[in-house]
Amino acid sequence: MRMSPPALPRRVAAEFIGTGALVAVIVGSGIRADTLSQDIGVRLLANAAASAIGLGLLIALIGPLSGAHFNPVVTLSEWWSRRRAGTGREVLAYIGAQLAGAVAGALLAEAMFGRAPGAWATESRSALHLLLGEAVATAGLVLVVRGLRHIGRPGLAPVAVAGYIGAAIWFTSSGSFANPAATVGRAFSDSFTGIAPGSVPAFAAAQLLGMLLGMVLAGVLYGTHGAAAEPNPAAARRTG
């Protein structure tokens, strides 16, 4: 017998906490890597490993509560695929919680390392090739999330999504933010993982474009009728 999903306030709280924890892991591991090595490869390896492991654990823990989206791109693509089972109110609540959680997570990471919270990032990431990399990274994430549901293997999300993000940090030019909320949060950290506020709008636009591309690719590969609506969001353990 399928259990009812948690009430919306609990799911929204789960998205806030989960997104905050995820961004704290990403930013905190970047700050730590900066203090341990001047080798960019070592820093990237440390950050990618910590981010992937943290993401996988968070999906496993919070997936049964909210679906563990942690990402407006995932929330929007999931809503579109099952829009008869969801509401605009839920989408806005999820995205608001993700944005607030991402900022809180970045500020927490800064504070944990004795840095003054709230310093704007100065790393410009506005070059066209970086935006292309970000669109590719986001498209791949959406394809993984939707693909798992189409093949009936959503339980693999903690490993598959985390593994994809860990790999995409290396194979994309942008470092695979693939998450508008995390992008906003990372603007509050002038560190290895930061992004200058002026680069955020273009990055977010590239991510939304990547979301659309990922949905198109999923439709080409799996068709448009193979994904049944999931009335219980707790059954969809997905993120970004």
Keywords, separated by commas or semicolons:
240 residues, mainly alpha, 0% strand, disordered C terminus
Care to describe what's here?
The protein is built from eight helices and no strands. With 240 residues, the chain is mainly alpha-helical. Mean pLDDT is 90; it is low at 226-240. The relative contact order is 0.21.
Q: What's the gyration radius in Å?
A: 17 Å
Mean model confidence by pLDDT:
90
% residues in beta strands: under 5%
| Beta strand count | 0
The number of helical elements comes to 8
Report the major sheet.
none
- How much helix, percentage-wise, in residues? 55-70%
What letter string, H or E per element, gives the SSE order? HHHHHHHH
Which structural class should the secondary elements be placed in? mainly alpha
- List segments where confidence is low: pLDDT < 50 over at least 5 consecutive residues: 226-240
Span between N and C termini? 29 Å
* Form type: globular
In short:
Helix content is 66%, strand content 0%.
Give a topology summary.
Elements: H1 8-36, H2 40-66, H3 72-81, H4 88-112, H5 128-150, H6 157-171, H7 180-186, H8 200-222
